[in-house]
Amino acid sequence: MKPFKFKQFIVEQDRCAMKIGTDGILLGAWVALNNPFSILDIGAGTGIIALMLAQRSNAKLIDAIEIEESAYEQCVENFENSPWADRLFCYHASLDEFVEETGDEKYDLIISNPPFFVPNKKEAGLPENRKKARFQDSLSFEDLVAYASQLLTDAGEFAVIIPYSEEEKFIQTAQNYNLFPKYITRVRGTENSAIKRSLLQFSFAEKSVEVKELVLEISRHQYTDAFKKLVKDFYLKL
Q1: Residues near 217 by beta carbon (within 8 Å), at least 6 away in sequence
Q2: Could you tell me the pTM of the whole model?
Q3: Mind listing the pLDDT tens digit for each residue in 77-96?
């Protein structure tokens, strides 16, 4: 598989169960940055989101966690081959192992493109690495929110991309841990298609929520101006 080339970096993905997709790129380009000193990417995969945030920010510390060994090794290589190798570090650990290992470490921004599929009978025979990358049972939304609230600084923020069908439940779970939505952007493939994804950003401050919609395409491979504006600093063809 060919590497994915962006304007300022290259991502190898041949050993990762989950390849680079629109979800991760959307989240990395969309999340609002409040001049973070430290960032944590939970479930890094190829490292794409952490790399995008290294390009977008001056954060001195950008940590990532990846539980699956092959993806972890590839993430490390992608970090080392990037222009920001001195600011990026990947841990080979589950989220609970990471918390146990790092102790009182706190982050100004925590970001995650979490596994959210629920397995069906057809997918029971998938390789273990792909199951970990795809399915909620490898990292539940409840655990993700609980640990994120624990790892955030008081003024820190937490951002995710999830299925729109899970939005209401996810927001309620976050509120149970005193995290409140700050920005919500709902994503449609085309203007007439159903909302597919929710981009959510939380903080510990309960304020009015800024809600928007983003449409990705006018027609197949014909992108909207809004989407092009969002990702123009990354995609070579924009």
Answers
A1: 189, 190, 223, 224, 227
A2: 0.90
A3: 999 999 999 999 999 999 99
